[in-house]
């Protein structure tokens, strides 16, 4: 069912990180908690829904440097700003992907 734009918002502050990790595709709970970050709101719908790779890009020109320093593992803000350099984009996910279990 369709949600109106005012009600279609993320319920969790971690939504952007989860979406950048590809959790929207893997986890129904993430879609429910994070409709805006998962691009499920009516005002975000596009015909060719494969726009994840465009959305998943670094927002800071220093991202590659930060990633090389290990900031992706130490700093959630770096993950949000630099999902591509931190290898968190859905198109970068591989079978043996790095998990964040020891944080």
Itemize the secondary structure elements and their pairings.
Elements: H1 15-20, H2 23-26, H3 28-33, H4 52-55, H5 63-68, H6 71-74, H7 76-81
Organism: Corethron hystrix
Domain ShKT: 8-41, 56-89
InterPro entries: ShKT_dom
Average pLDDT level: 77
Unreliable runs:
1-5, 47-52, 95-103
Which geometry do the CA atoms define?
elongated
Oligomer: single chain
**Terminus-to-terminus distance:** 36 Å
What is the makeup of the main sheet? Answer: none
Q: Hey, roughly how much beta strand do the residues contain?
A: under 5%
- Structural category: mainly alpha
Tell me the radius of gyration: 14 Å
**Fraction of residues in helix:** 25-40%
Q: Return the string of H and E elements.
A: HHHHHHH
Number of strands: 0
**Total DSSP helices:** 7
Number of domains: 2
Description:
It comes from Corethron hystrix. InterPro entries: ShKT_dom. This is ShKT domain-containing protein. The chain has seven helices and no strands. With 103 residues, the chain is mainly alpha-helical. The chain has two domains: 50 residues; 36 residues, no CATH class. The chain is elongated and about 40 Å long.
């Amino acid at each position: 069912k369709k949600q109106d734009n005012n009600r279609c918002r993320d319920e969790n502050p971690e939504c952007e990180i989860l979406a950048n990790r590809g959790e929207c595709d893997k986890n129904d709970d993430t879609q429910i908690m994070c409709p805006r970050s998962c691009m499920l709101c009516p005002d975000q719908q596009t015909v060719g829904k494969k726009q994840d790779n465009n959305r998943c890009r670094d927002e800071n020109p220093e991202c590659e440097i930060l990633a090389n320093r290990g900031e992706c593992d130490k700093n959630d803000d770096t993950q949000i700003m630099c999902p591509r350099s931190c290898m968190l984009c859905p198109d970068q996910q591989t079978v043996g992907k790095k998990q964040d279990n020891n944080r």
